[in-house]
Amino acid sequence: MKKIILSIALLTTLVSAEENILGEFGQATEEVENIITFDAGVWYMNWNQTSTSSEMLKNPADAYEMDYNIDSSMATVLALKMSYWFLSGSVEYSNNSFGSGSEESISNLDMGVALLDYIPYIDVELRYVKADFKGAMTAVSASENGSSDFETKVDIFDIIIYPFNDYVGVGYRNYNYEFPQDVYITHDTSGDLLAGGAGLVDLAYEGYFYTLALDNKKQVDKRNNYSGLMYSALFGMGKLTPSAIVNEMTNQADVDLIDSFMGDSDATFYDIMLAYTYKEKSEDGFGYGFTAGYRYNKIETDASDNVGKEVAGAAYSIKTKFDSEFHGPYLNLVVSY
Questions:
Q1: Which residues have CB under 8 Å from 15's CB, separation 6+?
Q2: Spatial CA neighbour of 274 closest among 332, 335, 305, 232
Q3: DSSP H/E element including 222
Q4: Total structural domains in the chain?
Q5: What is the pTM assigned to this prediction?
Q6: 12, 122, 139, 286: which could form a disulfide with 64 (CB 3.0–4.6 Å)?
Q7: What are the distances in angstroms from CA 172 to CA 74, 120, 159?
Q8: Strands 73-84 and 87-95
């Protein structure tokens, strides 16, 4: 009961907050939004893909030991924000090179449009993210091993509505993700593998999430002078559905058999950003500052809903599961007008 009361009290505080930004150091200043803001900086990118299918197997020796190789590296980041009246737009691009001639790379394009108070007391934010990862992977089991280059693609579309203030929002995310993973079809009782039912495939997923947002970014953008925290937290729960087997990998599996077993998976994601930001604006309208912080994104699946069926009179189910993380510290220099 105490937790419920505290949660209600916190939500009430957030909903009623209007004058001060949560996380601001010092006194509030006049809200005059910049027309144009340009960011340039660096981001130490880390990408971790983990196959957790082996946790679901009764015989661990049947599992592949998966290793996705994309080294952590510094990326360059460029961002442009423009605001006018009730409309705000932004574009951010980041890219890793990993050295001359390397096959490993990460690129990310993030675009957003916000309708600020277009409907009284309601802000609407639309966002599109496109990312590409290129790297290498190895898969080793008790009976075979293999390696392959791979390319992972991510497409995200968000719509977030802020019905009370600029801090708390609810929304919907459309999600598309393609990547190679290990899959296993096992007997429901004995755990034995079905012939042709274990291997590596490149799967394309389509999914959706219902989301909850908490951030102060829009309020920070409106300040001429600001010293304090800038944060964003987006949490989602939904479903991922395999839409296609794009490619069979080195280790052999019966693709048609695996495709017949694929089903929905429960999924959750977390997008979190926490930073310290400082900015000032002179009397002639020129502004400058910097932001230093950390970004953390994670998606994890629960394959409990995957399809089971009978083969030759015996009951089998597919086991496939993964977690994916994208994170790292960043530093941006900011100029505005």
A1: 164, 165, 167, 168
A2: 232
A3: none
A4: 1
A5: 0.83
A6: 139
A7: 31, 21, 6
A8: antiparallel
Residue type (1 letter), 74: M
Which tokens is 239 given? Answer: 């479903």
Could you give the CA distance from residue 232 to residue 209 in angstroms, rounded to a whole number? 17
Distance in angstroms (rounded) separating the CA atoms of residues 104 and 124:
36
Could you give the residue ranges of the DSSP H alpha helices within the chain? 2-16, 217-221, 255-261
Write out the two tokens for 81: 């924000």
Nearest 10 degrees: Cα torsion 190, 195, 196, 200: 30
CA distance 226 to 262: 51
Residue 266, domain extent: 2-336
3-class DSSP state for residue 96?
coil
Rounded to whole angstroms, what are the CA distances from 105 to 221, 299, 337? 31, 20, 34
CB 322, CB 50: distance < 8 Å:
yes
Distance (Å) of CA 79 to CA 5, 31, 93, 184, 216: 41, 22, 6, 43, 18
Q: Per the structure block, which two tokens stand in for 116?
A: 């600020």
Is the separation of the CB atoms in 261 and 309 below 8 Å? yes
CB 105 within 8 A of CB 121: no
Closest CA to 201 of 256, 282, 123: 256
Q: Give the span between the Cα atoms of 159 and 113, in whole angstroms.
A: 10
The whole-number mean pLDDT for each consecutive block of 10 residues of the chain, a chain of 337 residues, reads: 41 46 62 78 86 79 80 86 83 73 71 76 86 81 73 90 86 91 86 83 89 89 85 94 69 74 87 94 83 94 70 84 88 90
**Helices and strands in the chain, H and E counts:** 3, 15
